[in-house]
Amino acid sequence: MRWPRDLLSTLRGGPLPSGSLVERAVKGGLWAAGTNVGERLVLLGRFVVLATVLPPSEFGLLGIALLVVAIFERLSDLGLDAALVQRAEDDVDDYLDTALAMRAVRGAALLALGLAVAPLAADFFGDSRLTDVIRVLALSPFLFGLQNPGMVYLQKELDFRRKAVYRMTGAVVDTAVAVGYTFVVAPLLLNRDPTVWALVFGVVAGNLTRVLVSYVVHDYRPGLGVDVARARELVTYGKWMTGLNALVFLVTEGDDIFVGWALGSTAVGFYQMAYRFSNAPATEITHVVSDVVFPTYSKLQNDAARLREAYFRTLQLTTFVAFPVAVGVAAIAPTFVLTVFGPEWEPAIDVMRVLAVFGLLRSLGATTGPLFQAVGRPDLGTKVQFGKLVVLAALVVPLTDAYGLVGTALAVVGASVCFSEPVSAYLAVDIVDGRFRTLARVVGYPAVASALMAAVVVSLQAQVGVGVLGLAFLVASGVVTYAAVVLLFELRLGYDMRTVARTLAGGFGN
C-alpha cells in the first residue's frame, strides 16, 4: 500500500505556501483559523460529554494542577521559538541543536521541580489529591523539551498546514483517552467511578502524541551539538520574552490561582468554564493573529509603509471578526450555559458575560504584541504587562471580596481597560507612524455594529427560552443583524471591508 508513504511524504516535504508575503500570510491565517476551530470543537465536545459525568470540582482540580505546572513553564520560558522566528535569515539550522539541548535540560529540571513541589502546592490550595495530579502533569514540560526543534520552521515559513496535523492529532488523542477512560476503563475495567484522572491521562497522552507527530511533520533530525555562542544569542533576545511570558501568565492565570486559593476547586471549575467559553472565539482569533502576523511583521520590519498598512489591515480584520463574537457570547450566555451544561453550571453565567469583554480586549492586544517583537522591542510588551499586573493586583482582592467570582472577572477586565490596551495601542500607532484617527475608525465600526447586534439578541432572548432551537435562533439573529449593520456602514460610511474580503477570497482561492 503506497498511500501511507505518500501521505507521510506530503506532510514532511510538501511545497511551501506560494505567492506574495500578504497572500502567504492570508493562506497561513486560514489554515491556522481552521485548525483552531477544529481543535476547539474537539475539546469542546470532550468538555460537554464529560461535564455530564464529572462534577465542576474535578474540572477545577485539573485546572489548578495545570496552573501549577504552567507557573514553572512560563517563568522559565527561554523564548527560543520567538528568537528564531524573529531572525531575518530563512535558514536557522545552525541554531536548532542548541535550542533542543536547552529545551531538554529545562524540561528535565521542570519535571524534577514538579515532583518536589507538588505536596507544597497541594497544601497551599487545601486539596491533598493535587499532589499526585501535579506529579503526573509535570511530564508535560519534559515531553515538550523533546519536541522536534524543526517545528519552528512551520511558523517562520507560514506553513500552517503541517502544524494543523500536529495540533489536531494531539487534541483528538487527548479527547479519545479522556472519554475512553471515563466510559470504558473506569466503570468496566476498574469498577469505579471516573474522576479527574480521566482528564489527566488525556492531557499527558495528547502531549506525548504531539511530540511524536513533530518528527513526522518536519524532516529535520537534530544532533547533539551545543554552540555556546549561539545559545547566548538566543538568550539575549529571549530574556525579554521570558519576562513577557511570565508577566502574561500572571496576568492571564493569576486570577485562576487567586480563585483556587480563596474560593476552592469548585469555584475554579465554574470560573475556568466561563473563561474558556467566553474567550474561546476571541482567543482562537488571537492565536491565529499572533502566529501569522509575527513572522509577517518580522519580514516587513524595515519597510515602514508596508508595516503600517499591515498593522491597520490586521487590526481591521481582527476587530471585524472578534468584536461581534465576543459581544455575542456575552449576549447569549444564559441560553448557552443552561442549554449545553444545565442548571448545575448556572453560577458561571454572569462570569462568562464579564469575561467575554476580556476576550474582546485580548483580540486587540493580539495585533500589538507581535508588532513589538517583530521590530526588536519585546521589552515594550514586557513593560506593558507589568503595568497591567500591578493594576490587576490592586483590583482583584477588593472586587472579589465584594462580588465573588464576578468581581474577579471585573478586576481582569479593569486592568485591560485602565492600562494595557490603551498603552499598547498608543505604542503600536507610534511604531508604525500611524494616525490615531485611523485607529478609532477601524475599531469604532465593528464596536457600534456589535452593540446593535447585542441589543437585538438580548431583546429576543427572553422570548425564545432555553433549548437548542432557541440558541440556534439567537445566533442566527445576531449574525444577520451584524451583517446588515456592517453592510450599511460599507455603503454609507466607507468602512472598506471589500479590500479585506478580496484578500480573504484570494487566500481561499489559492
Automatic annotation (TrEMBL):
Keywords: Cell membrane, Membrane, Transmembrane, Transmembrane helix. This is Polysaccharide transporter, PST family. The keyword Transmembrane helix applies. Pfam families: Polysacc_synt_3 (PF13440). PANTHER family: LIPOPOLYSACCHARIDE BIOSYNTHESIS PROTEIN WZXC, PST FAMILY PREDICTED COLANIC ACID TRANSPORTER. It comes from the Archaea. Belongs to the polysaccharide synthase family. The chain crosses the membrane at residues 47-72, 104-122, 134-154, 166-190, 196-217, 317-342, 354-374, 386-406, 439-460, 466-489. InterPro entries: Poly_Biosynth_Transport. It comes from Halogeometricum limi. It is found in: Cell membrane. GO terms for cellular component: plasma membrane. The keyword S-adenosyl-L-methionine does not apply. It is a multi-pass membrane protein. The lineage of its organism: Archaea, Methanobacteriati, Methanobacteriota, Stenosarchaea group, Halobacteria.
